[in-house]
Amino acid sequence: MERIRINLDQLPSQRWEFLKAYKEQVNNLLEPIFRRNTFCKSHQRVSELLKIKPPVSVEDYFSILSDDNVKMNITVQQMVFDVTTGAIHLKT
What we know:
mainly alpha
């Protein structure tokens, strides 16, 4: 597992604008997939796992994302965002 941390405050504003535009494009492309039944099942499984054992660490979140009933075939990497620090944890 390789981890990359990105502090959003250190990104130049031009890169930040690129990331926002990229996110919007990805959201537009993935929206039809999210509406499918498989996404609903994945979301349901995440909800179940959160109730069984609420995550307290980045590893706990990656464990949920790695669950066979959560992971989608299109997933090539997993990211956990820490909203308190702006850190991005990436697992490839």
